[in-house]
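Posting here for the record, re: zinc ion.
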Amino acid sequence: MNGHPIAEPTPLTMPFWNGLEKRQLIIQRCNTCHRYQFYPRNFCIHCESRVLTWEPVSSRGHIYSYTITMRAPGPDVAVPYVVAIVELEEGPRMLSNIVDCDPFQIEVGAAVVADFRRENPNESMLLVFRPA
Ligand SMILES: [Zn+2]
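Prediction output follows.
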């Protein structure tokens, strides 16, 4: 898909992007209350601890909500495609695309698993999900 925004990692988000390069989904986990969070922050959203580590997760989840995009944002973008909120087994929700599926067969609650796509050789690896 061309014409999409290019990811711009920051020092805070760099571990996430480095994980994607290794085809691994890693997110922050609190060392105090042991819960996960996404997107990355400098503190735990559950207990406000500032002691967080990056940990690999199962990469499995389910579709919490979704929409089917029918109108392309640019001439090189293929439609329809699915934009979904995926709830990971570990709890956090992530905005992503569901790929390798018939968009009209998608259902809320459907099991999905992380996958990794690089749209162009000089761009970051991107996180997507596909039916599990
Ligand atoms: Zn915490």
